[in-house]
Amino acid sequence: MAIATRLTEGRLTFQFSGDADSATKYDDWLFYRNQFNSAFGGTKAVDIVFVDASQTWLIEVKDYRAHRRTKTIDLGEEVALKVRDTLGGLAAAKSNATDADEKRFARKALAKHRFRVVLHIEQSLKKSKLFPKAVDVSKVQLKLKQWLKALDAHPSVVDKTSLKATMPWTVV
Question: Source organism's superkingdom (predicted)?
């Protein structure tokens, strides 16, 4: 399990503030890969789980600068399913993970009283009729609000230039 304050996802590097063990690439966990991924006919996972002093952040990363989106599932629905499955995975890992660090991190993440969901999308800055933006951010934001209102009434859709002041990390 990679627990760190600096994580790389594709071509993006996330630098988190906080303790040295505050962020993890959940979809790389042994528990997720070897035990939980095949549960219920298959599960999905967000890319990064980050725990700060007051809340747990579930972060999904999409980078469409080099490749366009090809999946047919609605992006908001896809992220919502990943969030649901990740929370289930963390709950199961809290008791059943064989890796002590993963078990401890799951307990730490679930001990927080608030969850925040972030969809980090990078898209080409060039406007093109041939290659329009892969995702309409406002539509995805609306879908996420509909799907995740019971967990996070204000999920965020950001890129590295639009991170909010409440997000204790940077992306390069």
Answer: Bacteria
DSSP 154: S
Cβ atoms of 118 and 82 closer than 8 Å: no
The domain limits of the chain are 3-171
> What is the Cα–Cα distance from 60 to 83, expressed in whole angstroms?
9
Q: 54: helix, coil or strand?
A: coil
Residue found by looking up tokens 């399913």 in the block: 81
Tokens of 12: 């993006």
Cα–Cα distance measured from residue 32 to residue 43, given in angstroms and rounded to the nearest whole number: 9
pTM reported for the whole predicted model: 0.92
pLDDT band of residue 164 (cuts 50, 70, 90) is very high
Token duo for residue 132: 């329009």
Q: Identify the bridge partners of residue 3 per DSSP, sorted by sequence position.
A: 24
Separation CA 42–CA 60 (nearest Å): 18
- Amino acid identity of residue 88, one-letter, is G
pLDDT in tens, 6-50: 999 999 999 998 776 799 999 999 999 999 999 999 999 999 999
